[in-house]
Amino acid sequence: MAALQLNAKPFTPPLVSSHPNSKHSIKLARVSCSAAAATPSKRYTITLLPGDGIGPEVISVAKNVLNLAASIEGIEFKYQEMPVGGSALDLTGVPLPDETLSAALQSDAFTLVEIWSFLRYKWDKNEKHLKPETGLLKLREGLKVFANLRPAVVLPQLVDASTLKREVAEGVDLMVVRELTGGIYFGQPRGFGTNENGEEIGFNTEVYAAYEVDRIARVAFETARKRQGKLCSVDKANVLEASMFWRKRIMEIASEYPDVELSHMYVDNAAMQLVRNPKQFDTIVTNNIFGDILSDEASMITGSIGMLPSASLGKSGPGLFEPIHGSAPDIAGQDKANPLATVLSVAMLLKYGLGEENAARRIEAAVLDTLDRGFRTVDIYSSGTKLVGCKEMGEEVLKSVDSRVPSPI
């Protein structure tokens, strides 16, 4: 099984980094005929978890793109599809069946996951352990994936789709490294009770052990080292003891990375600075709850949450590769979904999960080529471009996969 490769280059879509000293840019070579599929020399098993809403639609597109790019590079996949979240609740009565976790753990490749913001109205009144999102938390815990990597890159083709002014959004290229299995989402004690005045209360615990902070810190420093060498640790150390401890451990680990410039920022200021001047950030590392919020904020700088992938990795075993958007039940089954975040997620699967750089670059380049040719789903549509649905966008990406070959500069 694949392990977290701390020396792997962090994900940045090709041709999108505007940093003058970027290490990630590539050039594209047009070939005159369709690329022929190579005889498979590598075979992997991948578990697909389509989830709910638009999940099955975008997973179908991503699977087709993955198969084509892999076949050209001599790779073959065997898939097993399992229920999770709301679909699992309907089928089995629980959000994460034992069979689903077992299948994920036994995958040869990292696991591909889709959609976590489920049809909430349907299960909102369920007990907590029977809510769809509990399946996600248990899956993360079961797979021991502690590092969530979320790139936020403003593509040149989509800079005008950002809600920020062009001069603010243009050139943004940052990575949020979020601790995923600790902190207030998992801390004990938690629950409901009664205080000394007899009033009902709800409580949670923000707690981190040294090893939890140290391991995510090393992932973040390694990520920053492969980017622009700048790491900003976000906390609330002026108020919270857990954040004071977080900052202390981050500073301890910093001594192992003298080549990386470390800064610290309070979370409220970080939220403001992401909107005011996002280009000041290269790599951000933060705890579970702050990362949950800030990574969503960063994603909207790019113009659409439908464009951004993510990877959740551990020291060993399968990981989770998923778009950061939700299940969008309001457009499910209408062919309106943007599949590109899921397509880019399978590129991350190839790069981080399997070390198949060529196939990953082929997919990344195909997405950019499709955008260059003017195709847009409704969430990124603007005047002068061609509005297409989920299926047609997938078909256009397939054409680009088959005809454009990325070559490092």
Note down, in words, how this protein is organized.
The chain is globular. Helices cover 37% and strands 19% of the residues. Helix 1 (55-72) packs parallel to helix 13 and helix 9 packs parallel to helix 10 (288-301). Strand 7 and strand 8 (200-203) form a beta hairpin. The strands form four sheets. The protein has a ten-stranded mixed β-sheet with strand order 3-2-4-13-12-5-6-11-9-10, sandwiched between helices. Strands 1-16 form a two-stranded antiparallel ribbon. The chain has a two-stranded antiparallel sheet with strand order 7-8. Mean pLDDT is 85; it is low at 1-34 and 115-120. The chain has 13 helices and 16 strands.
List key phrases describing it:
409 residues; two-stranded antiparallel sheet; 16 strands; globular
Quick structural summary:
The chain is of the alpha/beta class and 409 residues long. 37% of the residues lie in helices and 19% in strands.
Largest sheet: 10 strands, mixed
Structural class: alpha/beta
Shape, please?
A: globular
Low-confidence stretches: 1-34, 115-120
Radius of gyration: 21 Å
How many helix segments? 13
Question: β content, as a range?
Answer: 15-25%
Element layout with pairings:
Layout: E1 26-30, E2 42-49, H1 55-72, E3 75-81, H2 86-92, H3 98-105, E4 111-113, H4 120-123, H5 132-143, E5 147-153, H6 166-169, E6 173-179, E7 191-194, E8 200-203, H7 210-226, E9 230-235, H8 241-254, E10 261-266, H9 267-276, E11 283-286, H10 288-301, E12 309-313, E13 320-323, H11 340-354, H12 357-372, E14 375-376, E15 386-387, H13 390-403, E16 404-408
Parallel strand pairs: 2-3, 2-4, 4-13, 6-11, 9-10, 9-11, 14-15
Antiparallel strand pairs: 1-16, 5-6, 5-12, 7-8, 12-13
Helix pairs in contact: 1-11, 1-12, 1-13, 7-8, 9-10, 11-12, 12-13
